[in-house]
Specification:
Layout (H helix, E strand, L loop, with lengths): L2 E6 L4 E7 L2 E11 L4 E5 L3 H10 L3 H12 L4 H5 L3 H11 L17
Antiparallel strand pairs: 1-4, 2-3
Length: 109
Amino acid sequence: MRMLGTYALKHPIVLETRDPSKADEVKEEELKPAGFMVTLRRPKGKDLTVFDRHGDAMVAATLDMIERLSQLDATEVANLDGEDVAELGNLLERFAPNGQPTGATSSAT
């Protein structure tokens, strides 16, 4: 498998659930620990169509690409910490239309 890169999570992936009968009680389940190595494979043409489907919704496209190119499942990707999403997005930014920055290296205009 052709690798794009690896990234060590800075924050654990935590799933929060609520019991409807106990509205004030939140249960946390750690899905992946901080330090877990996420490996992204290089995208293929069929993977890049994600950007067409999401249009200008770059965060949605980034999350979709992370799910497609990594070993993380949909629930894990949906619960990634924002900082980890930004860093993984930085690995993918050169494949985004117009090379649009998705993470910490982007600048406000």
